[in-house]
Design brief:
The chain has 270 residues and is of the alpha/beta class. The protein is 41% helix and 13% strand. It has 10 helices and 9 strands. It is globular.
Length: 270
């Protein structure tokens, strides 16, 4: 959102938008004409209580939550708009669970397309859309530069909001073997021989880090195949945004966009 704020202030309005997962939610709402002020207010007022309501368990258990609360929230914002009727060309990128290939959803109900693109595996149930069983677009195409090109974009400004795996602060229960216990007692329970502290992370930490590694490496590979004209990578290293607290990423996006603005103007010949 911070990137869009800087571009809008500079008089740069996108002709096409493509996004996956949270990028589809923000991009789809913006393409539908929802103001950045309204979107920022929604994001900044997101509370843990609202997030928890979106995560209520569901049956059948193909995901922790049905995502119906998110669907209702989106519908209150976007009504019954269809993608093909939006003032800005838009693609919500999802992943076909059966084939594994990315899907650029460019026609049909906007709310359902965004909900499909947001279907984080295990967290939200998959969504049937136009005959395809869809999960999160980030699984197959986290930065859909090619989808933007297919929509007719001549110049693509891509925003990579994925966190580097090395920036994730892993922690867990300390692991101490027999040798370490003996040496540790002698040395005041310090790490023996100057070795780094070993620990056992929780299963959730392992799965989250696995997803982080997978998506970041996939994103790098797809960027090599489909490079954008401008690549923005906001620095979230000090305070990475999360689902229940996304507002902290807005300033980082603004800073990245302001740094790149001269180059953006040059490429657009403004």
């Amino acid at each position: 959102m911070g990137v869009l704020k800087v571009l809008e202030d500079a008089g740069i309005v996108p002709d096409v938008i493509a996004g996956a997962s949270m990028g589809a939610e923000l991009g789809g709402a913006y393409a539908a004409g929802v103001s950045l002020e309204a979107l920022e207010n929604l994001w900044l007022t997101t509370s843990f209580g609202r997030v928890a309501k979106n995560m209520m368990p569901t049956v059948p258990w193909s995901g922790w939550s049905s995502g119906n609360a998110i669907r209702r929230l989106l519908r209150s914002l976007l009504d019954d708009r269809r993608i093909e009727d939006l003032p800005v060309r838009f693609a919500a990128v999802a992943t076909d669970l059966e084939s594994g290939y990315p899907l650029a959803l460019t026609r049909g109900p906007l709310v359902e397309a965004i909900r499909a693109s947001l279907s984080v595996p295990g967290l939200f149930t998959p969504v049937w859309f136009d005959g395809h069983l869809c999960i999160d677009g980030g699984v197959s195409n986290p930065l859909p530069v090619d989808a933007a090109r297919d929509l007719g974009a001549d110049v693509v400004i891509a925003v990579d909001v994925l966190v580097e795996p090395s920036e994730v602060r892993l922690s867990g229960i300390p692991v101490i073997d027999l040798k370490e216990r003996v040496v540790g007692i002698a040395n005041g329970l310090g790490s023996p021989l100057g070795e780094p502290r070993r620990y056992a992370p929780s299963v959730f930490s392992v799965l989250f880090q696995m997803s982080t590694v997978f998506q970041k490496r996939l994103c790098d590979a797809r960027l090599a195949q489909h490079p954008p004209d401008i690549l923005l990578r906001p620095d979230f290293s000090d305070d990475p945004p999360c689902y229940s607290r996304v507002g902290c990423g807005i300033a980082a996006g603004e800073h990245a966009a302001r740094r790149a603005l001269p180059e953006i103007r040059r490429i657009l010949s403004l």
